Amino acid sequence: xxxxxxxxxxxxxxxxxxxxxxxxxxxxxxxxxxxxxxxxxxxxxxxxxxxxxxxxxxxxxxxxxxxxxxxxxxxxxxxxxxxxxxxxxxxxxxxxxxxxxxxxxxxxxxxxxxxxxxxxxxxxxxxxxxxxxxxxxxxxxxxxxxxxxxxxxxxxxxxxxxxxxxxxxxxxxxxxxxxxx
Length: 181
Prior knowledge:
The protein is an alpha/beta fold. It contains 5 helices and 6 strands. The strands form 2 sheets. The chain has a 4-stranded parallel beta sheet with strand order 1-2-3-6, covered by helices on one side. It has a two-stranded antiparallel sheet with strand order 4-5. Helix 2 (41-56) links the parallel strand 1 (16-17) and strand 2. The chain starts with a helix and ends in a 31-residue tail after the last strand.
């Protein structure tokens, strides 16, 4: 399925896709539950690796004219937000974060060599994913050896500093951690 999607994307001159979504579906109220491969980190990792390999190709065929860059999203723990609201903060132990939510991402980085990662909208333990040195530099780059690109999601960079962004006035969308962008 992913190989066919890659060929169709390349036929349209598209070189990167925002897939697969590796969030564990742990709260049925979450508005993106239908995008999830499930709540089991092993299953999500296995399906995620297969999907990345299909999109990007393997060996000599990796990133050839019939394949695209896959973007694993949303790094990390978006499937267990407060009150089930997409983009709401996540408060979770580091142990649960690493043992559950990070497993699929670590697998696609180390096993499938995913080309891109998209951070999640929310903050994990009050640290916005898009601006988290711990998540993006320490874990992703240094611990796991990710050397691909990090792709921002919709309006998430302005949310690091914005007090009021048109259409996004709820407090959980406003991180207020940067002076400017």
